[in-house]
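Late entry, written up from scratch paper. The run itself happened at the end of the previous shift, but nothing got recorded in the book at the time, so transcribing now.
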Amino acid sequence: MRLNLGCGFDKKAGWVNVDKMPQSAPDQVVDLEATPWPWADNSVREVEMRHVLEHLGASTDTYLAIIKELWRVCEPGAQVRIVVPHPRHDHYLNDPTHVRPITVQGLEMFSQKRNHEWQKSGKPNTPLGLYLDVDFEIVSFDVLPDEPWRGRLQRGEMQGSELQEAMRMYANVIMETTIVMRAVKADT
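Output as recorded:
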């Protein structure tokens, strides 16, 4: 099964399109903040969450329950693709329904491999993968620069390192981030 979670009006053929709002006519009406989710353990091979996760889990307990459910329903090796607005962009800041910034570094806390590396090196990062008994590996991430940064980069007027520096210094440089994770589980 492939889940398009929080699909809104963006339906994907061959996927189970899921949303809380019946007005968007999803295949399944599901409140993702209400756990457990209605899908079986290890039943999902691919998940898409496009501009969804930043709307969920205003309370830490709810957010962590969502991550646990996401891991529970994923089959071993399942791919989870998350697209979110960058938390330092007006698109994130202006929407009153955005409750939580989603970053690569924040999702990395659900990687048990990284948790063990941090423990070994004495880093104080919270080992959420170990605490929650979930394990997601970050496979890739990409950022979409906003204008005028994207045009400058495409025209060769700036290098990637200069874009990274601008990302650290200024708001509205990056519009959105795409993060791909893999569910790390023993084959069942």
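The longest strand covers residues 74-85.
(Scratch paper discarded after transcription.)
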